[in-house]
Amino acid sequence: MAELVTFEQDGAVGIVTLRRPEKFNALDIPMLHALEVALDQAELAEGVRVVLIRGEGKGFCAGGDVEAWGAMTAADFQVQWVRYGHRVFDRLARLRQPTIAVLSGHALGGGLELAAACDFRVAETQIKLGFPETSIGVVPGWSGTQRAVRRFGAQIVRRMAIGGEIFLATDALAHGIVDCLVETGKAFDEAKAWAEKIAERGPLATEAAKLMIAIAEGEESAAAVEALASGFIALTADLKTGVGAFKAKQKPAFSRA
Question: Which of 71, 72, 156, 220 is 20 to 30 A from 172 via CA?
Fold first, then answer.
């Protein structure tokens, strides 16, 4: 079976591609699992400083595949679908590298939630964005009412999730849902060029800035603080002294350096 989500590296840019074009890259459990694996590969890939998220074919991501969850029991829907989807999307939001969603097709429901988990969004002029879940009697379940509110503002999310508005790309740009608007067929090239510019900046400073902004935004707290502090400590002579003394079974002579 063809891979549902792939990771590839092009210099300093990592590219994660959803590969279910016949379903407009709608997400099911196997795709969520494959996305989680691809994100792990991206974070561990040596030299990757920025990660692009894109969809194969005409759609970025049509959201959650109704056929994948429609027959689930309430308990399975809560745990296997909503909570697992949250775990994968949180993995994306907390990737150490900056991320850019390449919106060359519509981003609806879970697809918009996926885009919202990225740091930046590049959109083509023909696309549409929205949260249509309430039209079929369900609610946004992968942080469409949480992370999306922090990123886009509560009133914009109300208009989509409650009012049922579907925004055209030009409106999405005006409301800050996307960061950059380009002609049809140009999103990937624009996103890659932007990624390459970001990759030229100090990688550690860029990653630290992403963490600090995430703390301010409420995306991360305890884990981010500990990551920043641990990263600082790892660069000190005291750490090397302590580890060396432990290995030698001696008392360490710390220097606060």
Answer: 220
